[in-house]
Design a protein that fits this description.
The protein has about 80 residues and is an alpha+beta fold. The chain has two helices and six strands, in the order αββββαββ.
Length: about 80
Amino acid sequence: MTANEFGKLALDLPEAIEAEHMNHPDFRVPGKILATLAYPDKSFGMVKLSLPDELKFTQADAAAFTPVAGFWGNTAHYTCT
């Protein structure tokens, strides 16, 4: 998935907009960041998932989805190529 494809998917969600947070493009629904690009580097996109969804996605495709702990909480990174 390319960065453009990732962004298009995010913007297809109702009320989603593109903005910027900490020098990274992000995608928001009213009041919340739901995804960001280029974090931790330009080959990644990050999408916020519930813990049950994170487990499902990482188990379904561990090469594409990597759980990330820390500041973002329960999120998964998706590799954009």
